Amino acid sequence: MRMKALALMAALALLGACESAPKDAGAGAGTGTQNTIVPGSQQDLVVNVGDRVFFGFDRSDLSAEARATLDRQAQWLKTYGNVNVTIEGHADERGTREYNLALGERRANAVKKYLVAQGINTARVKTISYGKERPAVVGSGEAAWAQNRRGVTVVD
Q1: 3-12, 36-45, 75-84, 116-125: which range is least confident on average?
Q2: Distance CA 124, CA 102 (A)
Q3: What 3-state class would DSSP assign to 128?
Q4: How far is residue 106's CA from residue 110's CA, in Å, rounded to a whole number?
Q5: How far apart are CA 66 and CA 69, in angstroms?
Q6: Maximum Cα–Cα distance for the chain, whole Å?
Q7: Would you say 120 and 78 are in contact if contact means Cβ atoms under 8 Å apart?
Q8: For the purposes of burial, counting CB atoms within 10 Å of the CB of 152, is it exposed (0-12), middle (13-18) or buried (19 or more)?
C-alpha cells in the first residue's frame, strides 16, 4: 500500500513538472486583443479561408467543395490586392516521379485557372508542382493519399 502511495505521489510530481504556462498567457486578457493574425498573411488565409483543395485519385478537376474554397480564396485575394500567391500542386506517392510532377502541375493550373476566372489577375498567381516530393501526410493508405492529392495556395 505504501509503495502505491509513493508511486502515485511520484507520478503527480512528474506531471506537475511537465506543466508549463503558455508564453503569452495573460497577454490581452480582457481586452479582446488576443488575435494576432495579420490580415493578408498566410496565417489569415489558412485560418479564415482555407489554403488547400483536394483532388480525387488521378484527377485534376475541381470538386464542388474545392470550388467553394477557391471562391473564398478569390474573395480574399480581391480584399488583399497587393498579395501574390503561388499554387503548389501535389500528388500522392503512387506513380512515377515524372507522372506525379505532371499531375501536380495540372492540379496547380486547375486552381490558378479557377482563381483567374473569378477575377484574379493572372500575374498575381504562380504555379509550381512538387509531385509526390512533399507529402502532407506520411503513410501508405487511402487516408494519407487523400490528404496528399492537393493544391495549396501559399502567400508569396
Answers
A1: 3-12
A2: 22
A3: strand
A4: 6
A5: 5
A6: 74
A7: yes
A8: buried
Length of the chain: 156
pLDDT attached to residue 35? 73
Specify burial of residue 15 (Cβ count, 10 A radius: 0-12, 13-18, 19+): exposed
pTM above 0.70, yes or no: yes
101: its cell numbers:
510532377
Burial classification of residue 20, based on how many CB atoms lie within 10 Å of its CB (0-12 exposed, 13-18 middle, 19 or more buried): exposed
pLDDT tens digit string along 111-134? Answer: 999 999 999 999 999 999 999 999
82 closest CA partner among 111, 42, 38, 40: 40
Residue from 148, 13, 9 nearest 91 by CA: 148
